[in-house]
Amino acid sequence: MTPTLVRQHSSHTGTASPVDLRARARDWSEIQERMLVPLYEAVFERLDVGGGTRMLGLGCGSGLALLMAASRGASVTGVDTRSPELLDLARQRLLPAAAEAPEPAGVRPAAAHVRTARVVEGPPAAAADPSAPAFTLVTAFEPIGCLDGDSEGLRELLAAATPLAGRGTAVVLAGWGPPERCATTSVLRVATKLADPLRGAGSWRPALRDDLEEVAQRAGLRPDGSGRVACPFGYADVESAARGLLSTGLFDAAIAATDPEQVDKELAEALHPHRRPDGTVWMPNVFRYLVARVP
Exposed, middle or buried: residue 14 (CB in 10 Å: 0-12, 13-18, 19+)? Predict the structure, then answer.
């Protein structure tokens, strides 16, 4: 769900309309990314992430999962190729001074452990360090099962990353849970409806039960357990909910097929049933994760 930050196109003129990439990256890191904190915490607890862990985070985005692992004593390296703006935020988060900044509830201060962090712009191979031991944990926390073609992209990413890990290393994949368990499904269907002319070009699709297992097997990994985690999406109001969801990139194809105003209007309408009397927006969701092993 890490945002794919692209240039939006007007359906009326055919010309590119640049997105404010920095503002969008901030919306992701300040509003949306924290919705996945329960997922990160559940994985780190299950795998006993701590001082002996060398973690490689694929598609690390603005680095919240890296920060949480570092706060447990892990040595962390994050790689990403899609958004320099997000990587800038990740570097700011992982500086020692950033430990004083407020983080989402449940995230412990990173303290001095952030000195063992690296954030690299590039493919997984860019994280290679011949002088360091192999990675003992690889994470791909961006949930698949929401965009056409996202599983194939993840398979290629894993194939490039596993040579950097030792035999038996845990590789964690994440995905959306069953649509009937995810209240946000009804909102994401707006993206599919509006992007229909571009179906197959980044439009949203419902998650399938075996998405994660199929990706792991095609990447040559051995599945070794899975879990489900409640990750409710909660927002202060409809406006912040819209900003958070737009920051994921899941509505980019819809914006390109129509226009930002139309997407904003239909997104607000779809969010209305999830608005509580105090104005906040609340959508219970379930996410899945799979632990696989490097053979």
Answer: exposed
Predicted local distance difference test score (pLDDT) of residue 153: 82
d(CA 150, CA 193): 19
For 228, phi and psi rounded to 5 degrees?
Answer: -120, 145
**200/100 Cα distance (integer angstroms):** 43
Report all structural domains of the chain as residue ranges with CATH numbers, in order of start: 18-182+205-233+285-293 (3.40.50.150)
∠ CA 103-105-111 to the nearest 5 degrees? 45
Q: Which amino acid is at 56?
A: L
Q: How far is the C-alpha of 263 from the C-alpha of 266, rounded, in Å?
A: 5
Q: Which amino acid, 55?
A: M
Amino acid at 282: W
| Grouped pLDDT means (10 residues each) for the chain, 295 residues | 45 47 94 97 98 96 96 95 93 67 48 68 93 95 77 88 95 93 92 66 63 92 96 97 93 86 94 97 97 96
